[in-house]
Amino acid sequence: MPRYLLSVFGPVERQPFGPYPSKEAMLEAFADTGAFNDRLEREGRLVFADGLDPGSTATTVDAQGERPVLTDGPYLETKECLGGFWVIEAADLDEALALAAEGSRACRGTVEVRPFQSEESVRALLES
Amino acid sequence: MTDPLSEAIARVHHEEWARVVAGLARRFGDLDVAEEAAAEAFAAAVERWPRDGIPPNPGGWLVTTATRRAIDRLRRESRRDAKHEAALMLHDDTPAEPKGPVEDDRLRLVFTCCHPALAMEARVALTLRMLGGLSVADIARAFLVQKTTMAQRITRAKGKIRAASIPYRVPSAADVRERLAGVLAVLYLVFNEGYLAGAGEDPVRVDLSDEAIRLTRLLRTLLPQDREVAGLLALMLLTDARRPARFSGTGELVTLAEQDRGAWDAELVGEGLAIVRERAVVVATGGERPGRYQLLAAISAVHTGAPSAGDTDWAQVVSLYDRLLDLDPSPIVRLNRAVAVAETDGPEAGLAEVEAIADRLDGYHPLHATRADLLRRLGRAREARAAYDRAIGLTGNVAEKTYLARRRDETR
Question: Rounded to two decimals, what is the model's pTM?
Answer without folding.
Answer: 0.84
